Amino acid sequence: MSETAHADAHDDHDHRPTGWRRWVYSTNHKDIGTMYLALAMIAAIVGTAASVVIRLELHEPGVQFITDFQFYNVLVTAHGFIMVFFVVMPALIGGFGNWFIPLMIGTPDMAFPRMNNISFWLLPAALILLVIAGLIDGGPGTGWTVYPPLANADYHPGMAVDFGILSLHLAGASSILGAINFISTIINMRAPGMTFHRMPLFIWAMLLTAILLLLAIPVLAGALTMLLTDRNFGTAFFDPAGGGDPLLWQHLFWFFGHPEVYIMIIPAFGVISEIVSTFSKKPIFGYLGMAYAMAAIGVVGFIVWAHHMYTVGFNVETRAYFTLATMVIAVPTGIKIFSWLATMWGGSIKFDTPMLFAMGFIFLFVVGGVTGVTLANAGADQAFHDTYFVVAHFHYVLSVAAIFAMYAGFYYWIGKMSGKQYPEGLARLQFWVTFIGVNILFFPQHFAGMAGMPRRIPDYPDAYAGWNMISSWGAYITAVGAILFFVVLWKTLTSKETVSANQWGTGANTLEWTVESPAPFHTHEQTPSISTQPAE
Amino acid sequence: MANEAAKTHPWHVPEPSPWPIIGTIAGFTMAVGGIWFMHDGPIYLFGVGVLILIYTFYGWWRQVIIEANTAGAHSEQVKVGLRYGFIFFIASEVMFFFAFFWAFFHSSLPILNNVAQVWPPEGIELIPASGVPLLNTLILLSSSATVTVAHHAIIDDNRKKAIRWTWITAILGAVFLFFQAEEYIDATFKLSDGIYPSTFYLATGFHGFHVFVGTCFLAVCAMRLQKGHFKPDHHIGFEAAAWYWHFVDVVWIFLFINVYIWGSSSFGHIAAG
Amino acid sequence: MQNSRRLIIGINSGVAFFFAAFAAFLASGANAAEPKPWQMNFQPAATPVMEKIIDFHNLLLTIQVGIVVLVLGLMLYIIIKFNSKSNPEPSKTTHNTALEVIWTVIPIVILIVLAVPSMKLLFFMDKAPNPEMTLKITGHQWYWSYEYPDNGGFEFDSNMVPDEEIKPGQRRLLEVDNQVVLPVNTEIRLLMTSEDVIHNWAIPSFGVKMDTVPGRTNESWIKVTKPGVYYGQCSELCGVNHGFMPVAVKVVSKEEFKKWTAKAKKEFANAKDAPVKVVEMNSPAQAKLR
Ligand code: HEA
Ligand code: HEA
Ligand code: CUA
Ligand SMILES: [Cu+2]
């Protein structure tokens, strides 16, 4: 069996390996991208299941069925980690990035295809470690922020937190290698004529995301290593008894953590820009402003980390600085929002599913963004910190905006990836169910937060019952939306209806639409050349 | 190779490869084995992971070397890409050390943590910067020079000279490691003696590990030179080793100035006020 | 197209939901020192700090609703005017420098308008102008302990009343066995630390929320203007029972407070032999204290 596969691999002119080797040994950016997307979907099932269990427990005051509160904390931790590291990042960066960077810049593959493969495979390994972490020694009940001393050996003596740390180490290694690959590819392998100022905005987004990853993830790796030695080898980085300081962890974590949230949203910006331009049948408005706005968000994102630490006891000058620096980010983000609106302005817009999700993204991201500005004010944050208002804020930008961008990108590109037409009616239904669901789910959390409800609690004072009940119902609706998504996926992949090379028509003018659908195993064997910028 | 013939672009798309998944298995085994060891288990599972990792490095880079010696695989454009890749790798390493320097300054500068404490903490018997650390500084600085000599020799197609100076560089690296081991053995404070040893050992220890990796890298380059792998216009592997070596050198200078000189001097006391 | 009509109808109901929600957001405001069912807004302020937070947030909210409504309005206009049916020929505009300058400058102006009161609030809440007494707060897994250093130095622990012992009329998860008693209209300095992990001492209606970090003493302050009982909860994940270490403060007149301290000194006398181990540090407040 292996013999034939091997022989095939060499005889086939198209050079397409077969069987399990095609996937496990892959050096093909499309196959690797597909594996990333599949992993994201599998992880999404786990992460969504965890969130629904959380909402079921919070459906009413009192203990519903989680009698072990450590288990509740573990669920919240696992939910946060899985959604961030194993759903959004693999889908938007690993999945869409791998598929469409080479296609859009006109090159046959990534710079380091073998390294690309290990970037992928490290993720399932990391996910397995994370699952083990949740199952042994009571699990890591630390929250995704893993603050010591709670995460120290004194308060989490078992192996659970160590498994969590090693899981993040592997996921981090995956991200760093992926980032090196993305940057090298984008800088070095663009088709002749595609200058930086002619790259599609999705490519800009991927380049900037990779740079953020390259600079932020190693700091997390260093911090995790310190936590590991604190736990197991008696160092005292975060232990006041030995002269260390728990706040050092928070600095290091958020120096990574804040850029991390932009690592999740900048790829989404890229996807949305492509879609808005395609469906408006107009080039993107203010192309350079859009590109440099993302760059500005990335740069400023590195100097605002302590806005997550307003209540740790900083002196007032520090809080004042971080307030002002954080507010600055609203300006480049506003440029993006208004440029999207201006792109649509005067357009001839078709409201297919990708565009519905893109418009949903723009509106709801603004809702989540302005609450971010509320939190940015250290004075006001004293009322909001660690309440459900924060939970509402970050789900509007993550579970709503980033997930909408994933769905949008999926519907936009599934024809290119599979050659099949997704069922438009059902897909629109999926949009509306999800749109309504997430708003019912997360909007009331603002109210609960303002009324004072803290995060990360398995039971709450009875007064908070009303909004929590509504929020839980929203979660169930959103979960139905996710199930519908899998139905659409199934129907698409089994559909007989195929799509043409450029299914979206004149608005879609990036290079991936010049190759046939599904994109053949090898593309751009003849190098294309580019003479205009997307805005021209 | 069938597909190489058909391509019209300058890029190198390697055959499907088993090494990434083997490397992943190595990482996974090391993670599980490491945790087991840290929780009072035996170390052998971790050891197995390390062996698989070494096997991966061997097999993977052997493949890369074969490609490098195959005409056409490493075109000019691919070489540029390899250089970019390595530079970004070093950038990520810089950020890794950034975390440890942050830990060091956070703990030693009251202005960063708002808790006045004495640095270096009382009861710590310091390692005088003028002894072994200064010696090691001189060793690493001169090794930076020797690696440059070797590099120029390659460019001048003077293989003998290149081999000699590359080995000298690698040996200087090994000598550095020897002295650092001495320093650790002679130190009166243990890793678990509080924040000073924590920052000291992790920062210098990770640096030492990088010196070790760089030394191996240089030794491999020396052997490849002996086999005649490097050409005046095609020696990416050597270039990477040299860059890596300079990076290790720069990190050391920061360590020497901050951790050894500033962090152990009365400056520290004054700053702690 | 029929599609866009369907879309508009859908979006309209979404809008209705938001407007209803925002309107309620602004209008609500029950009067109590505890959360009320269906409450959408802050708990009523009991300190000048919280009053200022609420004022500032009203400004924030107004501007933000404006921004959200503006974006929504533009989108609705776009949906109606620029769908492929009503506008078959797309325009080719991709630049308009004046417009780009405007949407850069206006947000900057808005942010400056926000930054000024934001900074005022921040600097106001930072330090008590003239503290008249000090309360030491220590977080433990999973209860609080309190010490009155300048009212006799007694100290006591404050544990949550478990569900089984809740009496009718009491608030589940918020009641404690020993409430903190404090005088009204008095500037009180709060010094906080922790014995184990990080906790956070928070009372919404006081506008106080401060981490208790082992190895540090953090400082905050309150001046409660109305007598009453005020509730809050630990606001930093601290382990299994993080959700079950509430804060309850009873604010009484100054005379009553005197009487209470006299009584409490005796009641908690035993505890005095084992004083709270507040880790000593050179925080200015602590130095003054010694
Ligand atoms: C994709 C993820 C993402 C994104 C994009 C953002 C975006 C922003 N976030 Fe958010 N944030 C998170 C994810 C994200 N955040 C997460 C996960 C947490 C919690 C972590 C944890 O504790 O577990 C968090 C927490 C968090 C906090 C800490 C709260 C606390 O714990 O007390 C703060 C405080 O400053 C903050 C601020 C901001 C700001 C100012 C932005 C800005 O980038 C938003 C900018 C956007 C706009 C402002 C809207 C569009 C602009 C206009 C239409 C122009 C006009 C507008 C104005 C003039 C205001 N965020
Ligand atoms: C991207 C990140 C992300 C996402 C998507 C979500 C989604 C959801 N979250 Fe999550 N959440 C976090 C990140 C995220 N969350 C983080 C970081 C925390 C903080 C953890 C901590 O405190 O430590 C948190 C905490 C958190 C809490 C607070 C718990 C507490 O403090 O006690 C709650 C409670 O309601 C909650 C609920 C939900 C619900 C109901 C959803 C629902 O929206 C879920 C519905 C599912 C989807 C919408 C996704 C479907 C996706 C697919 C089907 C994939 C499709 C794939 C392709 C297109 C390729 N979350
Ligand atoms: Cu104490 Cu949470
Ligand atoms: Cu942030």
Residues in helices of chain A, as a percent range: 55-70%
Q: Unreliable runs of chain A, pLDDT <50, ≥5 residues?
A: 1-13
Ions, cofactors, ligands: which are bound? Answer: heme-A, dinuclear copper ion, copper (II) ion
Q: Give the amount of beta strand of chain A, in percent.
A: under 5%
Q: Assign the CATH superfamily of the largest domain in chain B.
A: Cytochrome c oxidase, subunit III, four-helix bundle
Number of domains of chain B: 2
Radius of gyration of chain B, taken over Cα atoms and rounded to an integer in Å? 22 Å
Give the topology, please.
The complex is a heterotrimer of chains A (536), B (273) and C (290).
Chain A (H helix, E strand, L loop, with lengths): L1 H10 L7 H6 L4 H29 L11 H37 L7 H23 L24 H29 L12 H32 L13 H35 L6 H14 L15 H13 L1 H15 L8 H24 L1 H7 L3 H31 L5 H28 L13 H29 L43
Helix pairs in contact in A: 3-4, 3-5, 3-16, 4-5, 4-6, 4-7, 4-8, 4-14, 5-6, 6-7, 7-8, 7-9, 8-11, 8-12, 8-14, 9-11, 12-14, 12-15, 14-15, 15-16
Chain B lengths: L1 H5 L12 H20 L5 H25 L7 H33 L1 H4 L18 H24 L3 H28 L8 H32 L9 H27 L3 H7 L1
Chain C lengths: L1 H26 L20 H34 L15 H30 L6 E8 L2 E5 L7 E4 L21 E4 L4 E7 L4 E5 L4 E5 L5 E5 L5 E6 L12 E7 L1 H14 L1 H4 L11 H6 L1
Parallel strand pairs in C: 1-5, 4-10
Antiparallel strand pairs in C: 1-2, 2-3, 5-8, 6-7, 9-10
Helix pairs in contact in C: 1-2, 2-3
The complex binds heme-A (HEA) (2 copies), dinuclear copper ion and copper (II) ion (CU).
Which key terms come to mind for this protein?
heterotrimer; A: 536 residues; mainly alpha; 16 helices; 0% strand; B: mainly alpha; Four Helix Bundle (Hemerythrin (Met), subunit A); 2 domains; globular; binds heme-A; binds dinuclear copper ion; binds copper (II) ion
Describe this entry's structure for a reader.
The complex is a heterotrimer of chains A (536), B (273) and C (290). In chain A, helix 7 packs parallel to helix 9 and helix 14 packs antiparallel against helix 15. Chain A has 536 residues and is mainly α. Chain A is globular. Helix content of chain A is 68%, strand content 0%. Chain B has 2 domains: 74 residues, Helix Hairpins (Orthogonal Bundle), CATH 1.10.287.70; 198 residues, Up-down Bundle (Four Helix Bundle (Hemerythrin (Met), subunit A)). Helices cover 75% and strands 0% of the residues of chain B. The longest helix of chain B has 33 residues. Chain B has 273 residues and is mostly helical. The radius of gyration of chain B is 22 Å and the shape is globular. The N terminus and C terminus of chain B are likely disordered. In chain B, helix 4 runs parallel beside helix 9 and helix 7 runs antiparallel to helix 8. Chain B is built from 10 helices and no strands. Helix content of chain C is 39%, strand content 19%. Chain C has 6 helices and 10 strands, in the order αααββββββββββααα. In chain C, the strands form 3 sheets. Chain C has a 5-stranded mixed sheet with strand order 3-2-1-5-8. In chain C, strands 4-10-9 form a 3-stranded mixed sheet, with helices on one face. A two-stranded antiparallel ribbon of chain C has the order 6-7. Chain C is elongated, with a radius of gyration of 26 Å. Classes of the chains: A mainly alpha (536), B mainly alpha (273), C alpha+beta (290). The interface between A and C is large, with 103 and 107 residues. The structure holds heme-A (HEA) (2 copies), dinuclear copper ion (CUA) and copper (II) ion. Dinuclear copper ion (CUA) binds next to loops of chain C. Dinuclear copper ion binds next to loops of chain C.
